[in-house]
Amino acid sequence: MQLVDNNTFLQQLGALFESTKDKGTIWLTYKRLTHDGDDTVMKEEDGSDGSREYPCIVRVTDGKKAKFSTKILSIDLDKFHSTYGALLKSSMTTLRKRDKKREKQRAEQLAKRKQRMADPVVIDGPKRGNGRRKRQRQVKAALKHADMKERAAKREEARTKQ
After folding, report:
1. pLDDT tens, 49-102?
2. How far apart are CA 44 and CA 60, in angstroms?
3. Which of 4, 87, 89, 123 could form a Cys-Cys staple with 138, CB 3.0–4.6 A?
4. Rounded to whole angstroms, how far apart are CA atoms 72 and 4?
């Protein structure tokens, strides 16, 4: 991984955003840098006030060949964040907006299906004579409804086991 200065990092990041504008993924990692060479102890000994400032490291990769990072000192953090934020905002224009209408429609269909599962199928009408076919359809629908409830219960049971 290549360590570059802040301005070069932002320029390379902008170029990487441009190259993956149509298709691609970029991973950004933002961490506090605490490594001093030897084993690092987080607690300060001998009653020090713990006012030590740690630099941050930002890493970028596209998963293939582009890998670079920068180290940001606490003094330069505000300036870096403003430039970095502007770059991210300008690069987010290629993201697709959520299709809220379709999501709402699917949620309504799911709620309707759950409501149908909760409501029992009423079987009424005579066994013989007028309305016999209607009753047969209701019996068939009740059997199908019971089968759907059984399958849903099995699915829920399988999910809880995992």
Report:
1. 567 788 899 999 988 888 999 999 988 989 999 999 999 888 887 677 777 888
2. 31
3. 123
4. 10
The helix (H) or strand (E) run that includes residue 153 is helix 132-161
**What is residue 140's three-state secondary structure?**
helix
Per-residue pLDDT reduced to its tens digit, 112-142: 988 888 888 888 888 888 888 989 999 999 9
CA-closest candidate to residue 27, choices 15, 8, 10, 13:
13
Of the candidates 99, 91, 100, which has an alpha carbon nearest to the alpha carbon of residue 24?
91
Is the Cβ–Cβ distance between 69 and 3 less than 8 Å?
A: yes
Secondary structure (DSSP) of 17-70: HHHTSSS---EEEEEE---BSB---SSPSTT----PPPPEEEEEE-SSS-EEEE
Neighbouring residues of 21: CB distance < 8 A, sequence distance ≥ 6? 94
Evaluate whether 42 touches 52 at the Cβ level (below 8 Å): no
Residue closest to 76 by CA, chosen among 10, 160, 13, 6 = 6
Distance CA 99, CA 17 (A): 24
